[in-house]
Write a structure and sequence with these properties.
The chain is α/β, with parallel strands linked by helices. It has two domains: 247 residues, Aspartate Aminotransferase, domain 2 (3-Layer(aba) Sandwich); 144 residues, Aspartate Aminotransferase, domain 1 (Alpha-Beta Complex). Helices cover 40% and strands 14% of the residues. The chain has a seven-stranded mixed beta sheet with strand order 1-7-6-5-4-2-3, with helices on both faces. Helix 1 packs antiparallel against helix 3, helix 1 runs antiparallel to helix 11 and helix 3 packs parallel to helix 11. The longest helix has 32 residues. It is globular. The mean pLDDT is 97.
Length: 405
């Protein structure tokens, strides 16, 4: 829709951008479930493959429904371009794999999603890519790591699951000096709560499986950045390796974007409410939420985030006589999770339904106990993804479950 006003706010962008109506002039965006496309002539097919004209050729390359999703998410993010992927991990892999070669150096925060760390260890290191890990919240450590050239820098902020906050503008400036492409996994903050590109990042990745769908239906991912980056190495890799999203999934995610502002703001309000209550509870040793004044990087979170996200990470209070990394601590955490009625045990997050996760035995189970301790993940740690339920019902559920501990 080219006649839209130039300056629109997120709630409006989520509804009115990326619309490409067919001749039927449908109100709800069309679902183009097609593999291939017909050409008007052999000459048109030749010109399309030669790159001389821009038409749909094959849905591994591009698809109208996928294009609508990409355009809408790019508008919300404020990015020049977006390329959708089959999953969030495909987005993480391609965002880096498309620009890294043997002998290159990748600088990354230690605190990352377990599958991201496994990708780095099992693939990038095997391909002779040097990986230097940094304490996510230690600016001096970032200065040390980026004092020499690097090809890419990768972070999450807030981090999964402990919600550490990285000083994005600071790392962006260092990355630029080091000649590195700076990529931010923005899943916890969401497109509404933080704008990494405005803060100096070169690219942003999402697992659209999380808040963008937000209702447990389909998987998807996205990479956003400059036209040179997305239409260059990212597009080349995705088109040839085949990590493209299905048109059906893209349609579900496109419709998910329409309600994203309403859902995420309500979930974030619930999360903030519960976090403030939980940190005062005698059964809780600590509650992490970026916008809580008690958060270690609260000042930085306020500077770069407009919403605190939908997750609260807690550590159970078990007393000094119980090792937080031991079997008794795990048993106590399991009792708590199993006693919850409204927080369903799952390794997903960002769903409309509330979820409980034990990171040490699920999302980060491939890390050694020492590696988990380095980023403050213990057997007592529980990640709560807060949904759309009534906050008083969620509070009552947490209260009764804490009694089981």
């Amino acid at each position: 829709m080219s006649d839209l006003p130039d300056e629109l706010r997120p709630d409006t962008l989520a509804l009115h951008t990326g619309i490409m109506r067919s001749g039927a002039n449908e109100m709800s965006e069309g679902m183009y479930l097609t593999q291939g496309y017909a050409y008007d002539s052999a000459e048109q097919a030749r010109d399309a493959f030669a790159g001389e004209i821009d038409v749909y050729m094959y849905s591994r390359y591009a698809n109208p429904t996928v294009t609508m999703f990409e355009d809408r998410l790019a508008a919300l993010e404020g990015a020049e371009r977006c390329f959708a992927t089959a999953t969030g991990m495909a987005a993480v892999f391609v965002s880096l794999g498309s620009i890294l070669s043997a002998g290159d150096r990748l600088v990354a925060a230690k605190a990352l999603f377990g599958s991201t760390l496994q990708t780095f260890a099992n693939f990038f290191e095997k391909w002779d890519i040097q990986i230097d890990y940094v304490d996510a919240t230690d600016n001096a450590d970032w200065e040390r790591a980026l004092a020499t050239p690097a090809k890419a820098v990768f972070i999450e902020s807030p981090t999964n699951p402990m919600q550490d906050i990285v000083d994005i503008p600071f790392v962006a400036a260092l990355s630029k000096k080091a000649g590195a492409t700076f990529i931010v996994d923005n899943v916890f903050a969401t497109v509404l709560g933080q704008k990494p590109l405005e803060l100096g990042a070169d690219a942003v990745v999402y697992s659209a499986t999380k808040h963008i769908d937000g209702q447990g239906r389909v998987m998807g991912g996205a990479i956003l950045g400059s036209s040179d980056y997305i239409d260059g190495p990212v597009k080349l890799m995705i088109r040839n390796m085949g990590a493209t999203i299905s048109p059906f999934n893209a349609w579900v995610l496109l419709k998910g974007l329409e309600t994203l502002p309403v859902r995420v703001r309500h979930q974030a309000a619930n999360a903030m409410n519960l976090a403030a209550w939980l940190e005062q509870h005698p059964g809780i040793k600590s509650a992490r939420y970026p916008l809580l004044p008690s958060h270690p990087q609260h000042e930085q979170a306020v500077k770069q985030m407009t919403l605190g996200g939908t997750l609260v990470t807690i550590d159970l209070e078990l007393g000094d006589d119980i090792d937080p990394a031991g079997p008794e601590a795990q048993a106590a955490a399991f009792r708590f999770i199993n006693a919850l009625k409204l927080f369903t045990p799952s390794n997903n997050l960002g769903d409309a339904k509330s979820i409980s996760t034990h990171p040490a035995t699920t999302t980060h189970n491939k890390l050694t106990a020492d590696a988990r301790a380095e980023v403050d993940i213990y057997e007592t740690t529980v990640r709560l993804s807060v949904g759309l339920e009534d906050v008083e019902d969620l509070r009552a559920d947490l209260e009764q479950a804490l009694k089981a501990v």
